[in-house]
Amino acid sequence: MRDKRMTADEAVAELADGMTVGIGGWGSRRKPMALVRALLRSPLRDLTVVSYGGPDVGLLCAAGKVRKVVYGFVTLDSIPYDPLFRRARESGQVDVLELDEGMFQCGLTAAGHRLPFLPIRAGLGSDVLRLHPGLRTVRSPYDDEELVAMPALRLDAAFVHLHRADAHGNAQYLDPDPYFDDLFCLAAERRYVSCERIVPTAELTEAGPVQSLLLNRMMVDGVVEAPAGAHFTSCVPDYPRDEAFQRHYAEAGADPDAFRSFADRFLSGAEADYQAAVRSWREAGEAA
Amino acid sequence: MSSPTRADVCVAACADLFAGAGEILASPMGLIPTLGARLARLTIEPDLLLSDGAAYLVADTPAVGARPSTVEGWLPYRKVFDVVAHGRRHVVMGANQIDRYGNQNISCIGDHAKPTRQLLGVRGAPGNTVNHPTSYWVPRHSPRVFVETVDVVSGVGYDRARAAPESARRFHAVHRVVTNLAVLDFAGPDHAMRLASVHPGVTVDEVLAQTGFPLVLGSSFVAETRSPTNEELRLLREVLDPRGLREKEVAR
Predict the structure, then answer these.
(1) Does residue A126 belong to the interface with chain B, where contact is any CB pair within 8 Å?
(2) B209 close contact with A: CB closer than 8 A
(3) Model confidence over A194-212: pLDDT tens digits?
(4) Domain range for B49
(5) Closest to B56 (Cβ–Cβ): which among A91, A127, A176?
(6) Is residue B29 part of a domain?
C-alpha cells in the first residue's frame, strides 16, 4: 500500500491559482489550520473557498488568497463573528455564494455522487435564490413539486483535519461529530488529511470503534502529521478550543494595525514557528 | 414564593412555544429559549428531545451550563439536517431583523454585495422555515429589529412563502415571536404579525412604539402574558438556572 505521507507545504504546492478548495470542520471546530497556515504562506491566489466557515475563512481572506467564498455562515462559535471575514465582506473584497447549511451539504453530496444537482426544499422563498440567480428550481417528474436544484459543489482540493490516520490515508475522528469531512473528500479531485498523529493501521481500531474510521484510503491522496494542527479551533478529545488565543485573534483582527502585528508574530514563519510563538505567548502570561 | 421577574415570564412564554409538540426535537438558540425548552420538558411536554448543543441527545434535564448525565442519542450536524428535512423539529432562532410577515434576517445589514455589517450568514434559516415550525426570540424589542423590510430574507415569512413555489408552504409554520416585552403571533390578516400578549408591567403603547411597523391588535383588549406557576418558578430557581443567568439576558 502506498505511503502518502507529506508535509503541509508539499500538499499546498500541488494546488494552483484559481482553484476551488473545500475546508472541513465546522465554525471554530476541528479546522485543518496547519494546512490553512501553509496556504497563507504559499503564493497561491484567487481561490474559491468552500467552508462551514470559521477562522480559516477570515485568515485566508485577510491574506488576499480568496476571490470567492461559498458558505452558510462564518463564526468563531464562542465569538459570534470573525472580524477578518467581516472586514472582507464590508469592504466588498470577496465574491460570495451564501447558502443554507443544508443546501451546502446537498451540493457536496451531489459532487461526491457525480451528479449535476440534487433536489432540496431549503432555499425556496428565501433571498438565497434572489441573490444568486444562477440557482435554479426543478419540477418532480412524479408529482410536479418544484424544488431547488442544488448544483454540485465540485472541489479541486479538500483539506480536512482528523485525530488519527495511517500512512495510507485511512483516517479516524475521535470527537462526537464527523462534521462533513468525508463529503468534502468525496467532492474533491485531490484530498489531503492532516492529523494529530500518524499511527500504524492496527492502532486505529484500538483507539476507537470501527465507525470512527471516517475516511478510507480511496478518499485520500496525502496524509500530513500535524500535532496541534487544528489550533486554535477545538479538537477534542485531544484538546479543546484555545479560547484565550481565539480572543487574542479576534481582538487583533478587529484592528488592521493590531492584525499586522499578530500576523508578523504568529503567521510569518513555518508551522513549528507558529506553535512556538503560541507557546511563548501563553508562557508570557499574555493569555490572561 | 416571590413574584416572577420579566426573565421568568419570557422563559415561560418560550416553554409555551412547545405546547402540544410531542416527541420532536426542540432546538432552542440562546439562553432564554433553552430554559424554555427544558422547562417545557419538565412540565407540559415530557417527550421533547433535547440536544446538548453539540452532537448528543440528552435524557436528563440539568441546569444550563451543567453537564448532562445521560446521553440518549447521537445527533451530529448531518443528522440534524436529516431531522430538519424530516420535519420533527421546532426551532427557536434569533433575529437581527424581522418583519410583519415573519421574514427574518441573520445574514447581513445593507446591500448583500457590500454590507454595512456582516452578520452570521443565513445558516439553516431558509431550510428550517420551509420544513418545520419556527419561532423567534428577541431579547431587545426595538424598531431596529422589528423593521418594515428585512435586508436579507434568511428565515422565510408568510408573504414570501406565498409567492414561492407551493413546496415552500407545505410545511411552513412561523409560530410566534417572544420578546422582552411581548408575545406576537401571525394571526392577523394574511398572517400579519399580531400582538398576542404584553408581559406584566408592559403597555401596548410601549410595544407599538418599539415596533417599526403597525402591529395587528386583535381587539381593544390585549391579553397579559401569563406568569409562571409556582412549580415553574421552583424549577427555574432550584433546578434549571440556580445562578440566575436569565436575569442578565433580559432587563428587569
Answers:
(1) yes
(2) no
(3) 999 999 999 999 999 999 9
(4) 6-248
(5) A176
(6) yes
